[in-house]
Amino acid sequence: MGLPANTAGVMPPFGSGQTFGTVPNQPLAVNMSRPLFNDGRTGVVLSIPDTIFYGQLGPTAAAPTNALIGQQGGLVRDTDMHWYVNMAATTKLLEIVGLDQWDTQRGVMFTFLPAAVQLWA
Questions:
Q1: Which residues contact 97 (CB under 8 A, 6 or more apart)?
Q2: 3-class SS at 99?
Q3: How far apart are CA 20 and CA 5, in angstroms?
Q4: d(Cα 1, Cα 24) in Å, to the nearest integer?
Q5: Are the C-beta atoms of 92 and 120 separated by less than 8 Å?
Q6: pTM for the full model?
Q7: Alpha-carbon distance 94 to 79, whole Å?
Q8: How much is the pLDDT for 17?
């Protein structure tokens, strides 16, 4: 995301205001670091049956194909503390419902299985 260089560190949603790199075709803009969401006000999406989530297959998985649609998998936390979709997980929590058109290397769309959904907050 690019913002004019003179607003670096001024806009509250961007936390620390750290900048990096350049923005293509915008010589006066800078990239802003992502905010750190640790203030307790982060939105939460419940795993109800009609919510479709985006996720990534594990780092060693092959690129997703249409053959994955309809298959069940689980979630696993990687060594860098990020969660990913693992089709070989023993606890099946989710079902693949599509492929992520923006992340063709690892991206999938999934819903949680009825046994794993949260019906109330």
A1: 52, 69, 70, 109, 110, 111
A2: strand
A3: 11
A4: 10
A5: no
A6: 0.62
A7: 21
A8: 56
Cβ–Cβ under 8 Å, residues 23 and 9: no
The 10 Å CB-count burial string (b at 16+, else e) for 49-85 is eeeeeebbbeeebeebeeebeeeebbbeeeeeeeebb
CA distance 68 to 3: 39
Amino acid at 77: R
The one-digit pLDDT tens for each residue of the chain (121 residues) are: 444 444 444 444 444 456 777 777 788 777 766 555 555 566 677 788 788 999 999 888 889 999 999 999 999 988 888 889 999 999 999 999 999 988 888 899 999 998 888 765 4
Report residue 44 as tokens.
């939460």
